[in-house]
Predict the structure.
Amino acid sequence: MVSIFVAVSYSPPLPQLPLHFIATGASANSEASASHPLRPFWNLKLEDGALWNRLQHIWDREHNPILNGNDTRYKDQSLEIQPQETGKTGACEQDEAWASQLPDFNTLPEQMKDFVLSMHCRRYAILMDQPNLCFGQDSETAFLLMAVKSQVGNFENRQAIRETWGRSGQIQGDGGGRGWFVRTVFLLARQDTETGPHPDLSALLKLESSTHEDILQWDFKDTFFNLTLKDVLFWDWLSKHCPHVHFIFKGDDDVFVRTKALLDYLDHVGVQKTHKNKTKGWDDFIVGDVIANAWPNRQPDTKYYIPESFYKGAYPAYAGGGGVVYTGALAMRLQEVSHWVSLFPIDDVYLGMCLHRLGVSPTHHSGFFTFDLPEDLREKPCAYHNVLLVHKRTPKEMLTLWKELQVPPQQC
Ligand SMILES: *[C@@H]1O[C@H](CO)[C@@H](O)[C@H](O)[C@H]1NC(C)=O
Ligand SMILES: *[C@@H]1O[C@H](CO)[C@@H](O)[C@H](O)[C@H]1NC(C)=O
Ligand SMILES: *[C@@H]1O[C@H](CO)[C@@H](O)[C@H](O)[C@H]1NC(C)=O
């Protein structure tokens, strides 16, 4: 653009013949209007280093609001397999064709292989649903919906959460005052005899689900690299059954949340935002333990290992997956944009990738201790004064801590 500008504004000594300046790619036969490039003239070369980048590059181009147009559609013949768009049920098969896209496929850890073979699948049937979960007695919509990632076998964690920080109902903030309607829901996938050496807990789970009516379960294998599916399927569920919820907390079932303090905080931020008259302010609010400038882990024997053949480059800023809070309005935008972000094996990074495409940056809050408190402070109730969330606590610790924190410590 600079060189075109220079070329256009530079007026050489006038030659005898009339000359037109025509930029490369410009339409030569439109004399009247200014030169107009037929194609975008910035670099459209395919990012060919890693599989995820290649897939995403194509989607980014197709759904780029600036590049939107017919000319910019780009088909790469070598990436014929496109993420599943039209499948209706959970009948999505692993596709061996993906293996040929990764030169080092055979040397990768099992979880990476599994991920790659089914990364085109993102629609799985819901096995346990709670369509009315979001609403209270007078069909009041939840103010805060706490969505907790759990696994079939973690009965104890779920019960501890129900009895402590995830209690559903009208919850007051620490300062008393009006209550907010809070609901908790657990996000589960399958962990049964068909998906591995698991004891058959289906009858227990059924009983639990009918007792508490707070379990959503989808028909895919519950593994670490499949956690992203819980995000995208939860957003889909949310857009159907709870589109007007004010806030969503999403976190693990081994964290402790000071729900009352969180409600006070959200109320406080809400007042500030309204005060500044940012009518759109809430649309992009997301808060947590923000990790910026992180790079993929390249140690093949670790849980977070991402090979270079799969993903290149740094991660966008993201909020640690132990616990993050965002608005319902943002969840709706995430639900939309996630259809154009290729699945990534690490769920919190994936959320960061979606935010990046929405142009939203997560807000950091020092009260989210996703890596726990310093060791010497863990036993001191006063240390929890500024905590909104802390990882990690066993069910037993949750109950103890909950009890301790009922009485606000006097001298903190
Ligand atoms: C894209 O192409 C189709 C078919 O050629 C045409 O109907 C449509 O109007 C075009 N859209 C834009 C945005 O140019
Ligand atoms: C995710 O779940 C699907 C469906 O159950 C399964 O085929 C796939 O292997 C799982 N992926 C990982 C990484 O475990
Ligand atoms: C807030 O902004 C809207 C639109 O910009 C305006 O109509 C309204 O009067 C403003 N409210 C206050 C309290 O400033």
